[in-house]
Amino acid sequence: MHATIRRYEAIDETRTDEIVKKVDETLVPLLSKLPGFGGYQLIDAGDGVVSSITFFETSEQADESTRVASTWVRDEKLEAAIPHAPTITRGELVVDKPRELASA
User: Fold this and answer.
1) Are 26 and 63 in contact (CB under 8 A)?
2) How does DSSP classify residue 63?
3) Model confidence pLDDT, tens digit, residues 48-78
C-alpha cells in the first residue's frame, strides 16, 4: 500500500467550507474510481492549512491520484482559493495498524 500526503498552505479560509464540500462531492468520487484506491482523508489544520492523505495499492496509482487532484483544482476553478501547489510526501506504508474492533 502506498500513501500520498498533500499539504496545502495559504488556503483562502473564507472558502474552506466550499473546498471541503467540493472535495467530498467531486474529488473523492473521482479518486475512488481510480484503480487501487484504498482510501482518502482530509484534514483541516486551521490557519489556511489543509492536508489530504490518499492510499493506493501501487506508487504509480498514487502518482495518478496527484495528477487527478491537480487537474481537479483547475477544473473546479479553485486556483484563487488554493493558490499554491501542495507539498507532497509519498511512499510505501511500512507500518499500518488500524484500530481493532472489540468483540461482542
Assistant:
1) no
2) H
3) 999 999 999 999 999 999 999 999 999 999 9
47 grid coordinates: 490557519
**Percentages of the chain per state (helix, strand, coil), in multiples of 5:** 35, 30, 35
pTM across the whole model: 0.85
Measured at the alpha carbon of residue 68, what is the angle toward residues 52 and 23, in degrees to the nearest 5? 45
Closest CA to 10 of 90, 77, 89, 87: 87
In words, the CATH class of domain 2-92 is alpha beta
Q: What's phi and psi for 52, nearest 5 deg?
A: -125, 150
Secondary structure element (H or E) that encloses residue 60, with its range: helix 59-75
